[in-house]
Amino acid sequence: MNAGLDRARILIEALPYIQKFNSQTIVIKYGGHAMVDSKLKEGFALDIVLMKYVGLNPVVIHGGGPQIEKVLSEMSIQSNFVNGHRVTDEKTMDVVEMVLSGKVNKGIVATINQHGGQAIGLSGKDGHLIIARKLRFMPNSDETMDKPDKPPEIIDIGLVGEVVAVNSQIIKSLIANQFIPVIAPVGVGKDNETYNINADLVAGHIASSLEARKLILLTDVEGVLDGDGNLISSLTAGDAKKMIARGIIKEGMIPKLQCCLDALKGGVKKVHIIDGRKEHALLLEIFTDEGVGTEIVLKSQAPKT
């Protein structure tokens, strides 16, 4: 009897969120351990299918770094990284596209469909969904600071891109016809070049282009941690910037937070960084009072909106 009541309470707790987010678009960046652990993969697919069935519109953008690394290693192709970006020559790009747009993308689609969803896999090249250009960046350098008259060094890391535009109409058409878009972060340039793009950045741009209610990033950490290593459940954009400036937030969390801040600036209502290693983390974040991970908002507001 008690177990039955517990289940009923869970459903009642979820009801306001089901009502609130009905017909709303939720963009999910799927990556990390949740993509390689078989139990978590099944759980993720079930979460996406349930979200669709109760009236939400999930859009999935996925990574695939470990899978790419495995194939490159099998082909004896060495990977080099600069500031977290994989240096991508033409041979590496062929592997990246094959793995992301092929094996990984179609595997996610198949698992969602196996559990009753109607997922369709896309590359950013399909219908010119993601228009990209070559990413060029100037690393922070003490030498540059010491020699202000010296032209800054621009590093070329090959076929790594940044998003110029998103053809959101393609995604909206799929949503309108009750499909679940699953998108590989590969873009196309003006001269038909193929670009490898960071999946977090793609997710942020797509969320902004759709004016999504939420952007959720699945990671391999609990969320954003304070200086003592404790989880921060809610964070404003201003506080996030201060924590980065003070060095409290550092390393791999900085680009994720920057992606979140850009998405908020682009019109996304709320962004979440959650631990994809937890079973059904998506459902816990969206449909429960406490949630999991860290939510980021432009400014302080009422919780769980």
Q: Which features does this protein show?
A:
single chain; alpha/beta; eight-stranded mixed β-sheet; two-stranded antiparallel ribbon; 14 strands; globular
What secondary-structure arrangement, pairings included, does this model have?
Blueprint: H1 2-20, E1 25-30, H2 38-53, E2 57-62, H3 65-74, E3 81-82, E4 85-86, H4 90-114, E5 119-123, E6 130-137, H5 142-146, E7 155-166, H6 168-176, E8 180-184, E9 186-188, E10 194-196, H7 199-210, E11 214-219, E12 234-236, H8 237-245, H9 253-265, E13 270-275, H10 281-287, E14 294-297
Parallel strand pairs: 1-2, 1-11, 2-8, 5-8, 11-13, 12-14
Antiparallel strand pairs: 3-4, 6-7, 9-10, 13-14
What features would you describe in this structure?
By secondary structure, the chain is of the alpha/beta class. 41% of the residues lie in helices and 23% in strands. It is built from ten helices and 14 strands. The strands form four sheets. The chain has an eight-stranded mixed sheet with strand order 5-8-2-1-11-13-14-12, sandwiched between helices. Strand 1 (25-30), helix 2 and strand 2 (57-62) form a beta-alpha-beta unit. The longest helix is centred in the middle third of the chain and has 25 residues, at 90-114. It is globular and about 60 Å long. The chain starts with a helix and ends in an 8-residue tail after the last strand. Mean pLDDT is 88; it is low at 141-147.
